[in-house]
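Reopening: C-alpha cells for the uridine-diphosphate-N-acetylglucosamine complex, inputs below.
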Amino acid sequence: MNKIVTILGARPQFIKAATVSKAMGETGKLEEYIIHTGQHFDDNMSKVFFDQMGIAPPNYHLGIHSLSHGAMTGRMTEQIETALIREKPDWVMVYGDTNSTLAGALAAAKLGIPVAHVEAGLRSFNRQMPEEINRILTDRISSLLFCPTPMAATNLEKEGFNGFPCRVLTTGDVMLDAALHFGNKAIKPSEINLPDRFALVTLHRQENTDNPVRLQNIIKTLNELSRELPFVFPMHPRTYKQLQNGTQEKLSENIISIPPQGYLEMLYLIQHCRLVLTDSGGLQKEAYFFKKPCITLREETEWTELVDANVNILTGSDPTLIRQAFSVFYRKAPSFSGGLYGNGQAAARIAKAFSEA
Ligand code: UD1
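Re-run output (same inputs, fresh job):
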C-alpha cells in the first residue's frame, strides 16, 4: 500500500482533488491523507467543495491564511514539515500553482519525500504573477509531473526536464473529469433571480484586483457592457474587499453580484450563460467544456490552446479590447471542437501511475 499525503488549500485544488482522490481510492492500493493549509477558509471558499464533491475531511487543518506571500508560504512549509515527519508518506501530492502548492512541495523535497505535481508544465511566462513562481519552483523539485496538455509537456521539455531525474506524463486535465462527472448535478443558485440571458464574470487575480487603474478600467467597461447583457458576478473575497473600500466606481445595477458559489452552482451558471469574462485559469477551461466563449481579462494565459482555437480572446484590462471581444462573441458564438483536455480519464491515469510507482 503506497501512502500519499495530499496538500490542499485553495478553491480550485478542492475541485481537482475530488476526482483524483476518488480514482486513487478505487485502485485499492493507495492510502491518502489530506493536509488542508487553510489558505481558503470561508465556508463558501472551502467547506462547500468538500461537501458537494464528497471529499474526505482533511486529516490536518493548519488554519494559515491572510498573510503576505512569504509569511504564508513559510508558515505552511514549517507546519507541513511537522505533519510529514509524523506521517512518513511515500509521496506528497500537490496541485496547481498556489502558495499551498509550493509550501507542500518544498517541505516534502527537503525531507527527501518524492513530490507529484498535478497540473505540471503550465507557464504564463509572466514572472510578476506569484502563481508563475510557484509553478516553476514546484515543477523543478517534483519527481512525477502530470501535465494536463501536450503544450505543458513541451514547456517542460524546453526547460530541460528530459535531463532531470523525474517522470513527465501527459494525462489530460482533471478538471474535465470533474466537469463530466458533476455536469448533470448542477444546481441553480437560489439567492438570485437569474435573467434568461446573462454573461458570467469572475475576477480575483492580484494583478487585477490590487492595481486600482486596471480594476477601474475593468469595472467601468463591465458597467458599460452590462447595458447590453446583464452580468452575474460571483465575487471573490479579495475583489469584494477592494470594491468595498470606496475608492472604486460602483457596480451598475445590471451587474448582479453574489457571494462565491459552490462548484455545482458554478456549473449551472456556466451551462446557462451566454459568455464568460474572467481572469481565472480554471474557468477558462470550464467555459470551453460547456462550449461558451471566454474573454480573458489578462494579457496572457497558460491555456494557449483555447486562444489558438478562437474560443478565448485575451484582452487584459484594456477597455477597447474588452469591448471588441464582447462584440465578436456576443454577435456570433464561435464553433467548438472537443479534445483539447483529454477524454475525462486524467484522474484514473494519475492513480494508475501512483499504484505502479
Ligand atoms: C489563490 C491562488 C491562486 C488561485 C486562487 C483561487 C496564490 C498565490 N494564489 O489566490 O493561484 O487561482 O487562490 O481562488 O496562492 N480570503 C478570504 N476568504 C477566503 C479566502 C481568501 O477572505 O476563504 C481573502 C484572503 O484573506 C486574502 C484574499 O482573499 O485577503 C486573497 O486570498 P489569497 O489566498 O491570498 O489568494 P487568492 O486571490 O485566493
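The mean pLDDT is 96. The chain has 15 helices and 13 strands. Marking as resolved unless the reporter disagrees.
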